[in-house]
Amino acid sequence: MTRTLLLFATILTSTQAQQGFGPLDPTPPAAPIPQILTHMAQQESAFANARDHYTFRQDVTFETLAPDTNQPDGAYHQLTDISFDDAGRRQEHVVFAPANTLQRVTLTEADLDDVAHRLPFILTTPELPDYTLTYLGRQRVDQLDTYVFDCTPREILKDHRSLQVEDHRYFQGRIWLSQQDHQIVLIHGQAVPQDTRPGHENLSPPFTTYYQQIDGKYWFPIYTRADGTLHFPAHADALSQTVHVRTTVRYTDYKRFHATVTLHYGTEVPTTPNPPQP
Amino acid sequence: MWASRATRDRPRPSPPSLKSVILSEGRSPKPKDPEELTLTHTLNPFSPKALTPAPTQDPSIL
């Protein structure tokens, strides 16, 4: 009986070890950290280029939750097909957008920009100098062995107060890299800077984004969940307000495409001469 | 996200109730016990019913 229980406990432990987060092990990585980060940025840049040849569907929901019931009392929902043009510019085609019923918060341009860029965060070679990455250790996440880094924008480190909200926004938080290919497989953090000027507060909750290998090579963002309570302090013209918000983004239907179309306007279409008739 | 202005605007103070005006200006004797306070609060002084004297129940009139 004791052996049976022990075996059962062993099986249970090994099953649990395949899910969730293992302990953070501060052992140094197998390769020098600068080498890992350089390779990561190269991989992320390659992914950014590869992603330009994909279309996908983005399903965004912002919700406010009632303080008494914790049930949604307002929502913004939008279904958008995303593609990238030849210059890598993001093209959006809204396919479903029911009426916005958010009443306690108003979405801002920064929120929608975060959905497009900060939530599905990638860290390419040109962007790498913008961040300070600090190695935290190794960690097993589900069935993946990862390296964990703290990721902080250098501008934030330099002087947080000098960074204006109108300036570029960054990701700040923790990133998990696959030990195998040094690509980002998970992130948890927040878009910064958060605007805390009295009367102009523009806040957003912390979020977690999960990535998945779609094409057997690159890790694509597939799901983001943000959940938090935003505190809007009182000031001369307004009372304080606390709002529980939840954001979910699903990135689905990744499809690779490749097409080059050239249109000529106002010029004669070159034609091949007809072969001589016999 | 911004807080919606409609719900953040500080609500305007509501006009004082008639009872508080009467009490503060001394136009009505200050109630002495809780029962009287309740009566003053619930009775509408502008309704015709309030101005009509209560019918007497003196059996000698009948």
Number of strands of chain B: 1
Instruction: Kindly estimate the percentage of residues of chain A that lie in beta strands according to DSSP.
Output: 35-45%
Q: Biggest β-sheet of chain A, characterized?
A: 10 strands, antiparallel
Query: SSE string of chain A, helix = H, strand = E?
Result: HHEEEEHEEHEEEEE
Rounded to the nearest angstrom, the radius of gyration of chain A is 24 Å
Helicity level of chain A: 10-25%
Any low-confidence stretches of chain A, pLDDT <50, length ≥5?
A: 1-17
- On the 0 to 100 scale, the average pLDDT of chain B is 53
Count the strands of chain A?
Answer: 11
Q: Rg of chain B to the nearest angstrom?
A: 21 Å
List the helices and strands and how they pair.
The complex is a heterodimer of chains A (278) and B (62).
Chain A: H1 2-17, H2 33-51, E1 54-65, E2 72-84, E3 90-96, E4 105-106, H3 109-118, E5 131-141, E6 144-153, H4 154-158, E7 170-178, E8 184-192, E9 207-213, E10 219-232, E11 241-256
Antiparallel strand pairs in A: 1-2, 1-11, 2-3, 5-6, 6-7, 7-8, 8-9, 9-10, 10-11
Chain B: E1 2-3, H1 5-8, H2 18-25, H3 34-42, H4 48-51
Describe this structure as you would to a colleague.
The complex is a heterodimer of chains A (about 280) and B (about 60). Chain A is built from four helices and eleven strands. Chain A has helices at about 1-15, 35-50, 110-120, 155-160, and strands at about 55-65, 70-85, 90-95, 105, 130-140, 145-155, 170-180, 185-190, 205-215, 220-230, 240-255. In chain A, strands 3-2-1-11-10-9-8-7-6-5 form a ten-stranded antiparallel β-sheet. The longest helix of chain A is centred in the first third of the chain and has 19 residues, at about 35-50. Chain A starts with a helix and ends in a 22-residue tail after the last strand. Residues about 1-15 of chain A have low confidence and may be disordered. Chain B is mainly α. Chain B has four helices and one strand. Chain B has helices at about 5-10, 20-25, 35-40, 50; one strand at about 1-5. The termini of chain B are far apart. Chains A and B meet through strand 4 and strand 11 of A and strand 1 and helix 1 of B. Strand 4 of chain A pairs antiparallel with strand 1 (about 1-5) of chain B.
